[in-house]
Amino acid sequence: MGERVSQKRLVPLAAAWLTILLTNSAAWGANLLEVYHLARDNDSAFEAARYTLEAIRQKIPEARAGLLPTVNMNGNDSRTEASTTFDPAPTMTRDVHTWTWTLQLVQPLIRLQNLFVYQESQRLVEQATAQFDQAKQDLILRVAQAYFGVVSAQESIAVTESQVKAMQEQLEIATHGFQAGTHAVTDVYEARSRFDLAMAQLVATRNELATKRAELEKITGPISYPLAMLRPAVAIPKPHPDDIRAWTNMAQENNPAIRAQKAALAAAESGIRRYRAEHLPTLDLTASYGKNYSSGSLTTPNDYTTAVTSQQAGIQLNIPIFAGGGTNARVTGAIANRFKARADLETARRQAIAEVRQAYAGIENGLSQVTALESTVDSSQKSVKGNRIGFGLGIRMNLDVLNAEQQLYAAQRDLAKARYDTLLQGLKLKAVAGILAETDVTEISIQLEN
Q1: In 3D, which of 312, 305, 309 has the Cα closest to residue 290?
Q2: How far apart are CA 318 and CA 256, in angstroms?
Q3: Cα end-to-end span (Å), the chain
């Protein structure tokens, strides 16, 4: 009798759980494109990358200044009181007021090191631009990965809720059959065990969803849930072009990391030329205009006022002879940096090729897995239906129905995860090739539904 009472209490409790879960899942959420826009506006890592590029861009006008004229103005104003003696005249006190100002212009004519500094700055901006392009693609990947983690957990909850409902129905059937004397108590125990396991899985998937939401909101800030999920009928596309060599070639040309290292190598070459140019003479055009005034003199007997206006123009030549070995040391260091840049470029190339192969294989394997799981889901649905009919006719056991249902829901969860994983691998492949853009996010968002 105690068994029957506990079963009667357990079934309404499960129904209440399901009502709460389904009610909480009815809210309207956002799609991938909307979430990406939130991340683009709120992600601190992306914001730092944007300001880093903005700061490095100033290296070009900074270096260009070394090729343009400089204008300086200097001046001073002073008053001097002194006692002066000119033998045999008596000592006299003088109060002298003086002021002067000079306006000077310097136009570099030959300063090769400044030219190479300007070329180096251009290469450094190219490097920073490539790094920012990589940051933009990394943002898309981080958003997509976090987004797919959330929607995959949402689908797992939906599947687990269906599993709980099915196990609840099977538990009710077994309970009623036991009460009617047509089923053994072991059927009730087995059904209750599967129901409890499904409830535990539901709690676990809800915890996983909370974790995935927290990971996404670290990038985007607070967003609306649930997120739009991939429509069941959507087919995961193959890579286009469907040729790994084409993707490898594309990566070696457009991969942001490779582009950044190419620019770094070019900057290192300019750095060597810049330091070597420090051995060379420099030639500047100089021009100045100034005035000075003095109300008297402290050093001559005749105290008279002077006012002078001066204008000068000329060529200034500077020939470096010896700098204590510092120039040679800087050249040697720049050469070492060039070898390092070459090694980093080769590392970036190998990494890009490896990532192309990994992502391409991930898409191929993912598509095969999706196909196999779709077939598994279809077969499992038929198996559940057949076992339920057989159980009703008495030719199948309750355990057969429970096993078939558990296999179906496991396949459904695996299928949902495989679809999102394959989509993510497609985005990774485009990112390695350097062609991932917001349009790819838009295309995926079109395939989603709330």
Answers
A1: 309
A2: 43
A3: 46
CATH top class, domain 69-110+281-319: mainly beta
Give CATH 2.20.200 domain extents, the chain.
69-110+281-319
Distance CA 168, CA 194 (A): 9
pLDDT per residue over 278-325, tens digit each?
A: 999 999 999 999 999 988 777 777 777 889 999 999 999 999 998 889
Residues 6+ apart with CB under 8 A from 326: none
pTM assigned to the model: 0.83
Spell out the CATH class of 2-68+111-280+320-449. mainly alpha
Measuring CA to CA, which residue among 123, 111, 119 is closest to residue 277? 111
Residue located via tokens 């007021």: 97
Would you call 129 helix, strand, or coil by DSSP? helix
- The whole-angstrom separation of Cα 94 and Cα 81 is 6
Q: Give pLDDT tens digits for 154-171.
A: 999 999 998 888 888 878
Give the three-state DSSP class for 320: coil
The confidence score (pLDDT) of residue 14 equals: 46
Cα 214 to its chain centre, rounded Å, is: 18
What is the rounded distance in angstroms from the CA atom of residue 163 to the CA atom of residue 409?
6
